[in-house]
Q: What sequence folds into this?
């Protein structure tokens, strides 16, 4: 549904996006992560056919963004970083306006607006002026605007910002529901937990270039190394580490715990347990040390900064 | 586009700061003007100056129509840059609306309410005059004022929308609005004078002129409209280094030296390859890019032939004055005594021609290229004025042209046409640009082409023309006509 091939965007002397190549399949959620100024918003604007690529190619919903910008915009729903609403309009009129611009028939437009407002708990506020809405309500209305014409591709920039936890969950559920209906979603967010929760794959951009792409698990393995296991015993670990060092790589230890890494936990963990049992060592717990997307992100961005510093 | 226009108009009508002045200017002001007109008529009649009163009524009709449309400027200035400041522009840019639909939709929405208010105001004023004095102007005058008001609104709004798309803040847009307000104010004063002279037919020429300006501005606006420039431009900074770097970049070209690779030439000979590249590649490319401008310049010359002939017919030189038989070498040497003509030396002629063409180029920048063509047309019209006068005086006009103009004209005319065409392109860069090129880049490109062609082609031709004009043309003239 989205294909980027060596996509580049330059503003005068500054290269905002450089040789970006990736594909997003129908029904997939891709999280676009990166520090401020990395090129995420520029990439999203090119996908929405607002900015024209300097070089390379981008195809969205089967249309080239440079050759058929109007067709691309008809098939894309864009949630911008700022909601960008008309404060003097009523919520229902606002949606009606954008629905008309998207070419929706009258009956479909009204019904769809009503359904989406109801889903996000906004039906009661539809006839109020947008200027009276809270920040969270503005964000929800902007999201409804992006989803109104049922586009096959959704570009969401910080969709849950300024939202309370309940509303944020509504939005996440809505995104997951979209994917079940083969909608493609590109999600720009600084909320790494949300990205890990929603995204099928993660793309990390730094200084305009793609520095990491893959599923959360793949990225963790590639960038953080093999899984880290933590073993907790009922007794001090003296000597146990030496005993296990032939089987696994010991990464650290404390009084009654030690950590080891292994590329093949399915083979190694039973061996470790078996050895400890044979030695009469009592094991309290054996569990994987959780590694978050934040660890991956910090690793990637830290490496990238070092590279550029050199 | 209709959806956009409707929304914009409704949004404007929700703003009391726009509605209140429009209501005042539509209802109260015309009524006030009716009363004032009625009182003024009575007062001037007491002093036997009824004609002043007669001229005052149409003038006030024009004023009543103009005041409401001045508000269209405020709405139009805010239309793009205001949305950008409020961050509501990006969602609009992500809709399927084309650039033209977006541009024209906002333009129409900015113009419609004030224009309707102007028509209503005119109606209220006329109604008041008819009620108080039983006076109604001729239908032609009412039509003229309605058309004039409409065209003025289009010009102001088109100019304001261009400003709105090119500025980064409402404050900057309001400051730049003085480039619209001041000329319009001067124009209104001129129209007022014409109204008091009752030369109403002259106002139709002003309508025509304003229509041309409106078309130019709308075209310029649509061509300079660029979604990504609208979203960018967050910093109001003059990047001199960037501009210089961009301009300098147009002066790097590949050398040419027949079939020899310029890199293989000895260092002391590479400048020849550079010159070769300039004349073989750069200059022809620059001239090719200016094809349409050449057509415009030549069209201007053809028009000036007609103008010169027409003026000669209207203002014939009395018989006996136009005597070419007395022309001698001294006649040319005494030319500077005319005062405003340059010294009749090679340097005098050359410097005068160079100065004139550079001045035309400068004027072209501020007039979308129009002044460059006008400044070429003037001397051409003068030449053909005298050609026709020569014919009236019994001389062969072809021979006149051959003797007085052709020797140096063979070099000077192509130089003037080329410089004018490049100047037209410089002025028109704001209206028409290559795809994917910003206004700044297009203008710098045009400027670089102007400099290259002026130095490589125009200057040498003008130098040769000056030498011929001083040393050859007088001999030819004397040989054909003089003693």
A:
């Amino acid at each position: 549904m989205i294909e980027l091939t060596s996509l580049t965007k330059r503003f005068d002397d500054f290269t905002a996006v450089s040789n970006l190549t990736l594909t997003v399949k129908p029904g997939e959620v891709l999280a676009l992560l990166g520090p401020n100024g990395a090129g995420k918003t520029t990439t999203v604007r090119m996908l929405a056919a607002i900015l024209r690529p300097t070089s390379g190619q981008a195809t969205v919903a089967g249309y080239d963004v440079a050759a058929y910008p109007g067709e691309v915009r008809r098939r894309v729903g864009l949630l911008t970083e700022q909601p960008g609403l008309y404060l003097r309009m009523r919520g229902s009129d606002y949606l009606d306006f954008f629905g008309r611009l998207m070419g929706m028939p009258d009956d479909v437009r009204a019904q769809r607006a009503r359904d989406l407002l109801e889903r996000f708990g906004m039906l009661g506020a539809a006839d109020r002026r947008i200027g009276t809405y809270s920040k969270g309500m503005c964000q929800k209305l902007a999201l409804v605007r992006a989803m109104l014409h049922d586009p096959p591709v959704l570009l969401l920039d910080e969709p849950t910002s300024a939202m309370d936890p309940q509303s944020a969950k509504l939005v996440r559920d809505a995104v997951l529901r979209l994917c079940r209906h083969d909608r493609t979603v590109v999600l720009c967010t600084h909320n790494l937990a949300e990205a890990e929760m929603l995204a099928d794959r993660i793309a990390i951009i730094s200084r305009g270039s793609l520095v990491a792409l893959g599923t959360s698990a793949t990225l963790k393995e590639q960038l953080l190394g093999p899984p880290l296991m933590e073993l907790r015993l009922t007794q001090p670990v003296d000597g146990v580490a030496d005993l296990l060092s032939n089987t696994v790589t010991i990464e650290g230890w404390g009084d009654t715990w030690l950590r080891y890494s292994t590329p093949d936990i399915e083979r190694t963990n039973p061996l470790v347990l078996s050895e400890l049992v044979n030695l009469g060592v009592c094991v309290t717990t054996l569990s994987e040390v959780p590694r978050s997307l934040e660890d991956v992100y910090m690793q990637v961005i830290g490496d990238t900064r070092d590279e550029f510093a050199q | 586009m209709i959806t956009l226009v409707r929304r914009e108009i409704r949004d404007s009508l929700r703003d009391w700061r726009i509605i209140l002045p429009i209501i005042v200017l539509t209802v109260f002001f015309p009524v006030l003007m009716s009363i004032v007109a009625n009182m003024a008529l009575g007062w001037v009649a007491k002093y036997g100056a009824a004609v002043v009163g007669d001229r005052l009524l149409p003038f006030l009709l024009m004023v009543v129509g103009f005041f409401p449309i001045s508000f269209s400027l405020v709405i139009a200035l805010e239309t793009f840059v205001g949305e950008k400041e409020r961050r509501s522009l990006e969602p609009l840019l992500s809709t399927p609306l084309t650039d033209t639909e977006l541009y024209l939709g906002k333009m129409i929405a900015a113009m419609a309410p004030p224009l309707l208010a102007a028509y209503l105001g005119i109606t209220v004023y006329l109604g008041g005059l008819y009620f108080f004095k039983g006076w109604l102007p001729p239908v032609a005058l009412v039509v003229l004022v309605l058309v004039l008001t409409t065209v003025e609104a289009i010009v102001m709004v088109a100019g304001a929308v261009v400003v709105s798309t090119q500025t980064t803040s409402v404050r900057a847009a309001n400051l730049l609005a003085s480039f619209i307000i001041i000329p319009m104010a001067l124009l209104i004063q001129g129209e007022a004078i014409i109204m008091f002279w009752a030369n109403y037919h002259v106002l139709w020429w002003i309508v025509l002129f304003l229509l041309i300006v409106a078309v130019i501005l709308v075209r310029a606006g649509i061509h300079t409209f660029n979604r990504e420039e609208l979203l960018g431009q967050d910093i109001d900074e003059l990047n001199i280094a960037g501009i210089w770097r961009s301009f300098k970049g147009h002066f790097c070209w590949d050398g040419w030296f027949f079939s020899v690779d310029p890199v293989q030439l000895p260092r002391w000979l590479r400048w020849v390859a550079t010159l070769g590249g300039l004349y073989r590649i750069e200059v022809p490319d620059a001239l090719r890019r200016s094809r349409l401008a050449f057509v415009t310049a030549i069209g201007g010359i053809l028009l000036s032939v007609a103008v010169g002939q027409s003026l000669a017919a209207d203002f014939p030189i009395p018989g006996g004055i136009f005597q070419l038989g007395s022309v001698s070498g001294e006649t040319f040497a005494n030319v500077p005594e005319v005062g405003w003509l340059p010294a009749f030396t090679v340097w005098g002629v050359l410097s005068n021609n160079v100065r004139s063409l550079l001045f035309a180029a400068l004027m072209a920048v501020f007039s979308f290229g129009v002044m460059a063509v006008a400044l070429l047309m003037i001397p051409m019209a003068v030449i053909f004025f005298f050609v026709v006068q020569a014919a009236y005086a019994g001389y062969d006009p072809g021979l006149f042209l051959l003797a007085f103009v052709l020797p140096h004209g063979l070099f000077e005319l192509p130089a003037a046409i080329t410089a004018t065409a490049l100047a037209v392109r410089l002025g028109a860069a704001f209206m028409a640009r290559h795809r994917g090129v910003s206004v700044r880049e297009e203008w710098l490109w045009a400027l670089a082409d102007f400099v290259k062609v002026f130095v490589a082609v125009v200057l040498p031709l003008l130098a040769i023309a000056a030498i011929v004009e001083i040393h050859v043309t007088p001999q030819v003239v004397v040989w054909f006509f003089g003693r």
Chain B has a mean pLDDT of 83. The interface with chain A takes residues 3-4, 7, 11, 14-15, 86-98, 227-228, 231-232, 239, 242, 245-246, 436 of chain B (CB under 8 Å).
